[in-house]
Amino acid sequence: MFNRDYDKDPFIVIWELTRACQLKCLHCRAEAQYHRDPRELTFEEGKKLIDQIYDMNNPMLVFTGGDPLMREDVYDLAEYAIKKGVRVSMTPSATPNVTKEAIQKAKEVGLSRWAFSIDGPTAEIHDHFRGVSGSFDLTMNAIKYLHELEIPIQINTTISRYNIDVLDDMAKLVEDLDCVLWSVFFLVPTGRGQESDMISPVEHEKVFNWLYQLSKRVKFDIKTTAAQHYRRVVIQNKMREKLANNDQINYEDALMKGATGSIDGLGRAPKGVNDGNGFVFISHIGDVYPSGLLPVKAGNVRETPLAEIYRESPIFKSLRNPNLYKGKCGVCEFRFVCGGSRSRAYAMTGDYLESEPFCIYIPKALRKKQEENVTN
């Protein structure tokens, strides 16, 4: 699992089983609909896809949507994958579909973890974001069922202007709910997500530093999505701590170790995952994208094997080469560890190789050039 060459095999595969969902979330990437699309991959096509995923050095597989529970065969697909040895988790929507019986069935087939979204510590904030009143209470009930059935819980939260002022309360809720992982998403303006819903670049940096300090005192893991520059913040903080303790540290060595996960402290992938680089997304109709937030199609599994698309697509290959990144990302000393959100770069500029537009860091190379210009 950890000796993985991202040029050949992804660390994680996200499969959007369906776009059907009963919620109307403000930020929905999929712009989910109430009804299933007749073009969805069939059960047999799903099994073939799972075989292809397994053959790519058996990455983690996440069933997402829409709401994966809107597919009646979701447990059959999960069982097929789990019997092959694939580690499967699921991110269902908190709707009346999430009954204790549904969760019991998931446990029986061997689903390793459930993830629910909570976007605020109160029903008012969460339900506003999810577009349906009662969603918060449904989520709390579902989490209670998961605890009763002893299934590990992951909470997903999208950081936006609607909840940035209540993050301390949000962290306390995650702790009180005894979750194993808090997966913190940073809004990308795609699908229904709007630029006006996003926090500012300076606020991103503040939240990153807050998350790092939080990570040192809570028992749950913290993972970020569409926030590759959090890795830089973690490494910078760790280096400052080492210097404060008079520990010897080699800067270049630290960056390389950060790239392989030995000092990044994120507790997740052994090296930085980014869109198309260790990460691949398959849509409900089989289209393959670098991620669900980067809507640039690289192929379709009905026409081309997943491995061929992932390994050979010019889109994926360029995303795996940080030296091709433009602007400050292309010269940043953290580019192999961080690389910025390729999704956000695309959403804001139309070019997935452009600089991360919500990063305030100025790379050493640019600072040096600025100093030379001042001197001259």
TrEMBL record:
Signal peptide: none annotated. Transmembrane segments: none annotated. The keyword 4Fe-4S applies. Residues 7-217 form the Radical SAM core domain. Keywords: 4Fe-4S, Iron, Iron-sulfur, Metal-binding, S-adenosyl-L-methionine. GO terms for molecular function: 4 iron, 4 sulfur cluster binding; catalytic activity; metal ion binding. Pfam families: Radical_SAM. Its cofactor is [4Fe-4S] cluster. This is TIGR04053 family radical SAM/SPASM domain-containing protein. The lineage of its organism: Bacteria, Bacillati, Bacillota, Bacilli, Bacillales.
